[in-house]
């Protein structure tokens, strides 16, 4: 995923961070080191170079721990991690999409990290509590957040200006009304040449688009071990959006996330719910874009978040685990957390870093104020992919004309079966 990178600001922050390392008070590995550990991550673009620089800086300013980074794609990590660990040839520290963490924790592939959060360096770091909740399974922390970004709306400023819209909508009703103004059917054949919104009905960004809408409508997906997909609030939400699409033609039906991206990047949709990488896509396609929070639903503003977590694997020794925790505490120090935010293109993990501190990256600056409304998607649920697949089927059927109550009931039954396994 391509991201905007503010190289100068990152370099400055890292230089400051190097001076502050000796004050880091994370867990100390056993004497007689250095302790060496391998760190797999899937940051394959500019963000990976920044993370590798942070690791190199950490290695250079203390003698107790040495970390070696190995860059792989996220898919390769997912395909090889368990096999490598069973052969004791895997990483000691690994980064992975947060939704996969419960699966590995359930297979005893990761160690608990509750002691990390008890250290003064981390307990005083003002970490986003929702990002921390993202890495918990049955109340225990099995990871440490590396990234937590809310879904947001990217919009085409030029198309807004042509439609006479001077400010971004703040409520669902305003959002749909503006989307209708932005929908253009020049020849009157019932198929618009331009849509106000690209709303995918399946295979969405991290499967988080529809949960974001359900949250803002007062609903949820899972509570405890029970599916609540077919709640009255969710039925109302799906009914509202199905009618908006079917009757007001604000978005085509049958879109998946990729088709939605293409519709926006080609200038044929004025708005799309997506992640921060869409900013670079818009720039590549010469679109003058803005980023805004998902408008408020009946129960307020909400957004699902995409997350990346780090975990200490079962093959790591006690000394390696302590070394990994010392590195993570360093990563959460204020200057390093700022540098990592700028380098990754995602909002800071610390809530005490204001948008002004990351203003050199306009995408990060725009997303940072939206983070408090972000919620982790199905944290701690090992069968999250099955739950989301059931939801995908329901939203696709509803936007194609199916009864929202009926399709959500069927989806909830399917999801419960997965949860009961």
TrEMBL record:
Keywords annotated in UniProt = Signal, Transport
PROSITE patterns named in the record:
PROKAR_LIPOPROTEIN (PS51257)
Name the InterPro entries for this protein. Answer: SBP
Looking up Pfam families in the UniProt record yields: SBP_bac_8
Entry keyword RNA-binding: no
Q: Span of the secretion signal?
A: 1-30
Origin: domain of life: Bacteria
Q: Record's family?
A: Belongs to the bacterial solute-binding protein 1 family.
Entries under PANTHER family matching the protein: MALTOSE-BINDING PERIPLASMIC PROTEIN, MALTOSE_MALTODEXTRIN-BINDING PERIPLASMIC PROTEIN
Q: What is this protein called?
A: ABC transporter substrate-binding protein
Q: Which organism is it from?
A: Microbacterium rhizosphaerae
Highest lineage ranks of the organism? Bacteria, Bacillati, Actinomycetota, Actinomycetes, Micrococcales
């Amino acid at each position: 995923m391509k991201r905007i990178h503010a190289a100068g600001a990152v370099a400055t922050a890292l230089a400051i961070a190097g001076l502050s390392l000796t004050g880091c008070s994370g867990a100390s590995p056993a004497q007689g080191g250095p302790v060496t550990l391998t760190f797999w991550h899937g940051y394959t673009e500019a963000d990976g170079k920044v993370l590798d620089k942070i690791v190199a800086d950490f290695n250079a300013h203390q003698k107790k721990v040495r970390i070696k980074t190995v860059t792989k794609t996220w898919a390769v990590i997912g395909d090889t991690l368990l096999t490598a660990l069973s052969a004791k040839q895997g990483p000691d520290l690994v980064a992975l999409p947060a939704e996969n963490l419960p699966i590995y924790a359930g297979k005893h592939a990761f160690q608990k990290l509750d002691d990390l959060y008890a250290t003064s360096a981390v307990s005083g770091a003002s970490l986003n509590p929702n990002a921390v909740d993202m890495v918990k399974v049955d109340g225990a922390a099995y990871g440490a957040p590396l990234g937590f970004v809310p879904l947001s709306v990217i919009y085409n400023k030029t198309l807004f200006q042509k439609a006479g819209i001077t400010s971004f909508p703040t409520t669902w009703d305003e959002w749909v009304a503006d989307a209708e103004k932005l929908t253009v059917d020049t020849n009157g054949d019932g198929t618009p040449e331009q849509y106000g919104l690209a709303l995918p009905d399946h295979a969405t960004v991290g499967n988080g688009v529809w949960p974001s809408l359900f949250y803002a409508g007062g609903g949820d997906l899972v509570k405890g071990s029970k599916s609540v997909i077919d709640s009255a609030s969710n039925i109302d939400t799906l009914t509202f959006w199905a009618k908006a699409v079917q009757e007001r033609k604000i978005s085509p039906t049958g879109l998946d996330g990729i088709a939605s991206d293409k519709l926006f990047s080609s200038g044929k949709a004025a708005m799309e719910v997506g992640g921060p990488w869409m900013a670079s896509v818009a720039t590549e396609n010469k679109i003058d874009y803005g980023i805004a929070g998902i408008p408020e639903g009946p129960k307020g503003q909400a957004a699902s978040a995409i997350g990346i977590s780090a975990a200490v694997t079962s093959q790591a020794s006690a000394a390696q685990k302590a070394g990994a925790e010392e590195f993570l505490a360093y990563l959460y120090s204020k200057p390093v957390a700022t540098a990592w935010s700028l380098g990754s293109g995602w909002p800071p993990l610390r809530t005490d870093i204001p948008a002004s501190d990351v203003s050199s990256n306009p995408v990060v600056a725009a997303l940072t104020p939206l983070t408090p409304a972000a919620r982790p998607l199905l944290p701690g649920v090992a069968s999250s992919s099955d739950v989301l697949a059931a939801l995908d089927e329901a939203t696709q059927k509803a936007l194609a004309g199916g009864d929202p109550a009926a399709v959500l009931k069927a989806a909830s039954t399917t999801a419960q079966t997965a949860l009961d396994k």
